[in-house]
From TrEMBL:
This is AAA+ ATPase domain-containing protein. Keywords: ATP-binding, Nucleotide-binding. InterPro entries: AAA+_ATPase (IPR003593), ABC_transporter-like_ATP-bd (IPR003439), ABC_transporter-like_CS (IPR017871), ABC_transporter_C-like (IPR050173), P-loop_NTPase (IPR027417). SMART domains: AAA. Gene3D superfamilies: P-loop containing nucleotide triphosphate hydrolases. GO terms for molecular function: ATP binding; ATP hydrolysis activity; ATPase-coupled transmembrane transporter activity. It comes from the Eukaryota. GO terms for cellular component: membrane. Residues 76-198 form the AAA+ ATPase domain. Pfam families: ABC_tran.
Amino acid sequence: ATLTAIMRRTGEVIGMNEYSQKDSQDDPTLPANTRILIDNASLSWGFSILKDKDSQVIDSDQKDINLKNISFEAKSGELIAIVGTVGCGKSTMLAAMMHELEVVEGSVRTNGAKAYVEQEPFIVSGTVKANILFGADYDDDLFDRAIEACCLADDLRQMSDGFDTLIGERGINVSGGQKARISLARAVYAQADIYLLDDPL
């Protein structure tokens, strides 16, 4: 029970780390089928910008802008892949969708709970089940569907205690692939409106 409470609270605090949340900056005025709308946005990981009383940018340091003049729209039911060379800004683009970047110009609007799976799978010391629930209430049918969707069934059959097997610092070691599948199952179990997967293959 203590681990569950810690996970729930951790999810509330870190929000973006493979945890579904309703973003406080969400915009319910977006069209019903639009989940993400980025309009000619220039974004930065954070620096001081000077704006006038009408919120117009007076001065900014251009070299600190990480994404420039980006326009993008994602609608419900769409599967979109962002591809490019190493370091071109793919992960930064996902961070922008989670409102983690400073909007220097343009706008970033989203509507819906988000589940994010980062490049390095996030695993805590606890059972496989606890790592998937991450503080959420247990639903047997939903849990089984998440396991099936993320191809975890074979992994669990090989573990001595199935989904009650301890993993992490105080449990057995799991492979990189198993960590990735557990992280994906956590996102699926969250039943989010928007899924952001950073290099999941």
